[in-house]
Amino acid sequence: MPKLASLPDLGPAPELTNDTWLNVDSPLRLADLRGKVVIIEMWTFGCINCQHVIPSLKEWHDKYNDQGLVIIGNHYPEFNYEADLANVQDAVARLGIEYAVAQDNDGATWRAYRNHYWPTLYLIDKQGRIRYTHIGEGGYAETEENIQALLAEKY
Prior knowledge:
single chain, 4 helices
């Protein structure tokens, strides 16, 4: 499979082990999402920078879901009140998030990705490999171009 020169292969994406999920019927696993392009966003609902990224994630979900994009918000709390599932559910409803959200209170996914910052996006190709990361707000046009490029790759 030809790699796109602008997107390096950053290694295999660590598998998700989260048990608590919102907006999906059962836990998502990357192994089951081969052939799809996946965004994992590390976020917490109390983070203003995370809140600023959500409109773009919602737009991409609406625009590319039918083309094979799966967005997963990995919710890792910074503060105790953010660990409460009812508070996460309220935030997801208030923010109008329709894509999958995984609760990561123990930080297993956060640590597996060696993540340090809210928000961070990981763009994973159809083979399950990390191809792009973005920390913080901004870079929306570049991120969307990379989503389109990965969706266009053969599986």
